[in-house]
Amino acid sequence: MENVVSVLNLKKTFDKKPVLSGISFDVPRGEIFGFLGPNGSGKTTTIRILLGLLRPDSGSALVFEQPLETSDKTRARVGVLLENNGLFDKLTAYENLKYYAELYGIPDVEERIRELLAFTDLTSRKDTLVGTFSTGMKRKLGIARAILHRPEVLFLDEPTSTLDPEAQKMVRDLIVHLSGDESMTVFLSSHNLDEVQKICSRVAILHGGTIKALDSVENLRKNSGVTNVRITLSDSSQVNEARSVVSKIPTVTDFKEIEEGFSVTLSDSSASPVISGLCSAGIAIEEVVKDKRSLEDIYIDVMREEA
Ligand SMILES: Nc1ncnc2c1ncn2[C@@H]1O[C@H](COP(=O)(O)OP(=O)(O)OP(=O)(O)O)[C@@H](O)[C@H]1O
What we know:
By secondary structure, this protein is an alpha/beta fold.
């Protein structure tokens, strides 16, 4: 499958401080790719290099197999929404889209604007000044602006930060729709791990200048090597007794009291030693639930490994 983004051994240093120490990854066509990492880990730097806005020290960052800074033709296949929505507060929603549509030389301007206002559910606000829009509405219009020219790939840098949960969902739904119905490849940098887990096909976790994890969310969750198990006790007053039994089991790495019982983290996938230990001690079990680890758990593990 064609790679929309190809990053190979990319290095960048600012003021002698290495930010990217040789990162490599590809994004095939059709993916929603989640680019994760703590503040200052170099996500925006990577995106800026990919967009041709910043020069790397070495390595390559290609979009459709071209460096964007040198190819206007490839640039036309790319949509971008960085921190700023790129909108004019003193123009209406319609006027903003019209301005950019003319700038991009879009042929079917009126039809495309109508389509995008409907897509972002802003038709009824088309003649409203953008300065009066909520943050969520501005972000949706920002996405409409970024996709006016029907790009094949859309770069989004933290598109839902500063949005309330309802607006986050609206933007998330737009992204999923763009990826599904419009077959757009989406490169999404985000701190919202729940959102990334919900919509991304694959993720990269950037930390300390290198990529610490790169896989599908499903594989990362499956292969994380640890399991969380929640156990409800028939008699919750036995929880302290359970703690002393369970704490002696070598595969148990964490014990947390919860309502009606406890949860444990295991260093392998088998809950049998815990169950048989409790049974031997005469502690009756009401329910055992094995939880899949969340992307957040995995992310925190990666950060801890580095600490
Ligand atoms: N133009 C620049 N000059 C000097 N240092 C820079 C420049 N741009 C970025 N940096 C530094 O590079 C590091 C990485 O910044 P970057 O913005 O890429 O991180 P990020 O992962 O996007 O962070 P955040 O999640 O906070 O947006 C930071 O320490 C930042 O201060």
